[in-house]
């Protein structure tokens, strides 16, 4: 527990965490200090001077808040006339050569310069000479588009490529009003995290080729979720919107801070994986290629499972813990073999030492803790013996065709319960559409045994059912995610004390080792 200290802001006493700078410490108690260049992931650069505050203790009358640690008894001035004058002056400088093109700027609505001007300035421009023209719509690579005229030269983007990715593609060249951010000739951005620059840029100088001009940000509904792109489980916001008479569409994923999992950033592949939630979705139930009502399809699956001598159920390693538990119950009910085989989800060598993992499965730890076998040998043996293969959304082709498995699949009757149209589901005689992860809530456990909860964000017009609902209709006893927990708690020692409704935002680091192993 961090030590707390009391200090005064504009004469009012506040209690904040020691060891932080004034910007971060006061933000926690709802006090904003405007700033451009400081970012908690990048540290204090001290170049923008937007954060200057007064301190009444004999030190220089104004100090940058980003470089000033909180101290007990400190008297901070934010609303004094000379501080307001500084804020006006800094904003006036920033806007001298700014194009003021907010109506056509993609950052409008989430731009610090725009917000600070409305809050701390509202001055008319005193510029009576031509503005300095700079380059616009510069393709910096990796889907990042730069507008030099909107840049406030805070150097966050430059520091990101030097401190975080250590690729150093960006620099600031020239001085005074000729200063500008640029790439080196012929050397565009070339790292797998480049789009974080768009979030870091406090103004509209760095925009995303993928997102720009597609949606105004004030229309977007922002829901917290977890990326399912790999076993890191980065925290994200799902920004989505339903236009009148249209479907709910996801427009972007953005990073959500979780210091236990992903810090402040996400990878570009995970960020752009929002498209998979929109596209290629399985929306119709099919029996032998014929479109069939949902209830009829469920009944047909039940009948096949009842008739099968040795059914085999395969589950996706992306499923939530609750879904895995429910499918496990269904497999017991029908005397089926259960596998979580998912070697295809592992792309050896693709990971790095920052966020990206080789394993593209979101919840492999869940399979392990629930005691669901994932090895190839037992899966192949079960596939050789089975007369009915039911695939719960496992993309066996994730890394490409597996000829041995495909040959076996060609000899067996199969059913696919799936969220997307994939090659591997095409041979199924019955196909039942289900929700994808942005459309249901649950819990997953990342590679480091951090248990995290996520909630339903998107409601599609042609909504597939949650896999939990499908298992319930197949006769499983699990009614909803909450209802799965008494059994999960009893079965997995390290989850014995977990209340899924009380999982904190940063997740719970589970006790691992022998204690973590499955019980019943
Ligand atoms: S492009 Fe954005 S992040 Fe980079 S220096 Fe300019 S304002 Fe700062
Ligand atoms: S590192 Fe993995 S979990 Fe994080 S954003 Fe990328 S794909 Fe998603
Ligand atoms: S945030 Fe302190 S000088 Fe820029």
Proportion in helices: 10-25%
N-to-C span:
37 Å
Query: What top-tier CATH class of the largest domain fits best?
Result: Alpha Beta
Overall geometry: elongated
For this structure, the CATH topology of the largest domain is Rossmann fold
Tell me the number of helical segments per DSSP (H or I, 4 or more residues long).
14
- Reading side by side through the largest sheet, how are the strands ordered? 15-14-20-19-18-16-17
What would CATH call the architecture of the largest domain?
3-Layer(aba) Sandwich
Structural class: alpha+beta
**What hetero molecules are in the model?**
iron/sulfur cluster, FE2/S2 (inorganic) cluster
List descriptors.
3 domains, alpha+beta, 520 residues, Alpha-Beta Plaits, Rossmann fold, Ubiquitin-like (UB roll), binds iron/sulfur cluster, binds FE2/S2 (inorganic) cluster
Provide a descriptive summary of the structure in words.
It is elongated, with a radius of gyration of 27 Å. It is built from 14 helices and 23 strands. The chain has 3 domains: 76 residues, Ubiquitin-like (UB roll); 107 residues, Alpha-Beta Plaits; 231 residues, 3-Layer(aba) Sandwich (Rossmann fold). The longest helix is centred in the first third of the chain and has 15 residues. The chain has 520 residues and is of the alpha+beta class. The chain has a 7-stranded mixed β-sheet, with helices on both faces. It has a 5-stranded mixed β-sheet with strand order 2-1-5-3-4, sandwiched between helices. The two termini are 37 Å apart. It binds iron/sulfur cluster (2 copies) and FE2/S2 (inorganic) cluster. One iron/sulfur cluster binds next to helix 6. The site of one iron/sulfur cluster has 14 residues, from helix 4.
